[in-house]
Automatic annotation (TrEMBL):
<feature type="region of interest" description="Disordered">
    <location>
        <begin position="30"/>
        <end position="62"/>
    </location>
</feature>
<protein>
    <recommendedName>
        <fullName>Secreted protein</fullName>
    </recommendedName>
</protein>
<feature type="signal peptide">
    <location>
        <begin position="1"/>
        <end position="26"/>
    </location>
</feature>
<keyword id="KW-0732">Signal</keyword>
<feature type="compositionally biased region" description="Basic and acidic residues">
    <location>
        <begin position="50"/>
        <end position="62"/>
    </location>
</feature>
Length: 192
């Protein structure tokens, strides 16, 4: 089971990996929805300092992610290759960037204590109540974040990874942008 301390460590490790390896590029504002398709079998074990290819772990393998930015909320829908109740935890982690150079962290993680999943947002100055669900039959993780949690931005962009923690030494990630473990930001998703 991933305790709250281990979950925090997992998030810190993910954030360090993301921030250490990201390449952010500016892009013009886009529509209120963006979909990214991702290849099959492209997970990486990030538990050590040098990430290693680990394609035999489909539990955290992303296939398609859709980002919707409405007037009231940001909704992320991640389709996985084989989302299942397994190991110490499974779900999605992300960084969210906004126009005022404020970044937030968010996740939706299912654990043996709560396989339905728990949604969290980090770095929000306001009271924040995201919602989320993990549908193991349809292999879908869905996270909804009120725009008030993010300071009501005109646009957002994301770094997102599917995640599966088999054990403390085996933490598998799949970057939604298909950049191995470089974790590039998506293009901007404008408020609809």
């Amino acid at each position: 089971m991933i305790s709250s301390a281990r979950t925090s460590r997992f998030v810190a490790l993910a954030a360090a990996t993301v921030l250490g390896l990201s390449v952010a590029t500016a892009a013009p504002a886009s529509a209120d929805s963006r979909t990214i398709k991702d290849g099959k079998g492209d997970t990486w074990n990030i538990a050590s300092e040098t990430p290693k290819k680990a394609s035999g772990h489909p539990e955290g393998d992303l296939r398609k992610v859709t980002f919707n930015h409405t007037a009231r909320k940001v909704v992320i829908t991640a389709r996985m290759q084989n989302l299942k109740k397994s190991g110490e935890g499974v779900g999605v982690y992300m960084n969210i960037d906004t126009p005022d150079d404020t970044s937030y962290g968010a996740d939706l993680i299912g654990t043996p204590d709560n396989w339905r999943g728990e949604a969290s947002v980090y770095g929000s100055a306001s009271e924040c109540s995201p919602t989320g669900s993990l549908n193991y039959k349809k292999d879908v993780a869905k996270l909804s974040i009120p725009r008030s949690c993010l300071g009501r931005p005109d646009w957002v962009r994301f770094q997102l990874a599917g995640a599966f923690a088999k054990s403390e030494n085996k933490i598998f990630y799949d970057d939604a942008t298909g950049k191995k473990v470089e974790f590039a930001f998506t293009r901007r998703v404008a408020r609809g």
